Amino acid sequence: MRNDDGMSNEEGGTYVNPGGEFTRDQRYIATRITADGRDGYPVEPGRYRLAVARACPWASRMIVVRRLLGLEDVLSMALAGPTHDVRSWTFDLDPGGRDPVLGIERLQDAYFARFPGYERGITVPAIVDVPTGQVVTNDYAQMSLDLSTEWAAYHRAGAPRLYPEELRDEIDEVNRVVFKDVNNGVYRCGFAGSQEAYERAYERLFDRLDWLSNRLANQRYLVGDTITEADVRLFTTLVRFDPVYHGHFKCNRQKLTEMPVLWAYARDLFQTPGFGDTVDFDQIKRHYYEVHKDINPTGIVPSGPDLRGWLDPHGREALGGRPFGDGTPPGPVPAEETVPIEHTPYAA
């Protein structure tokens, strides 16, 4: 079986590739939920459940997009705990360790319900068809785009245009290079099995972060003058950079807090409703430091870093731009989805 980071997870967890360079397994379930139901799964309010873990950057994208678009009452959310074992993510945050809607303890049960003996990654995010208990898709890149397009009839009033048609080519190109060198680049550093593979990934990562700093020095957002899918995808890596990637994955040329443009950009997004209010720093750190035992065999979770800087003024308003365009911010987080305050910068 392969885990959410795309590597073999036998004997309690092996993530580093002994052959050298980390290669992510990107064979996902490509079934789509669409307005016309062409794959057999039409968009229907209440029919599906989004399985996520706040620890996972890929799942965090879906949490942010779902909240920005106001789909909470249309697509319910199952929250797995921050750690998993060789078999699967588990719903150990729920009473009795069982998701109250799907009635399962492990996400693998939904995968096996559709594909008995499924041998690829039991990954989050995944969308499950509630009536059958079967997984529909775990193709995270397409899933968030479909929330913006196929689910448009159910967006809240004032929802932002995260994937506007006139900017899609540019968004797609930015997403492509950010995924290759940054989103996946940090894993290529952390899971490298040779000095040479690590150094190649390290150089690519920081070259791309320098490129992003230059791009964002004079514009508030990555593409256009509002938040888009591109900002969501970069944010979920940046918010994890100092807590886990800098130390745990040896991405240590600089901390995010030492890269002035990206640090201000990340704070700007964090302080935008729909971004920072979905982030659980405690779960993020527990996942990486407890699960990756071949990198951190003691399982000790660091106490730092100090999170209070996330609330400092960012000054990015001077660049113009409007986060929601002609729309409005999302409303308050539903009570049952609120991140515990002790896991946020607001606890200080």
From TrEMBL:
Entry protein name: Putative glutathione S-transferase
Residues at the site labelled Lowers pKa of active site Cys: 245, 288
GO MF annotation list: glutathione transferase activity
Lineage of origin: Bacteria, Bacillati, Actinomycetota, Actinomycetes, Micromonosporales
Cross-referenced Gene3D superfamilies: 1.20.1050.10, Glutaredoxin (3.40.30.10)
Cited InterPro entries: Glutathione-S-Trfase_C-like, Glutathione-S-Trfase_C_sf, Glutathione_S-Trfase, GST_Omega-like_C, GST_Omega/GSH
Active site: 56, 187
Residue stretches making up the GST C-terminal domain: 138-291
Pfam families linked to this entry: GST_C_2
Superkingdom: Bacteria
An example Gene Ontology CC term for this record: cytoplasm
Alphabetically ordered keywords of this record: Transferase
Region of interest: Disordered: 1-21, 318-348
UniProt: glutathione binding residues: 89
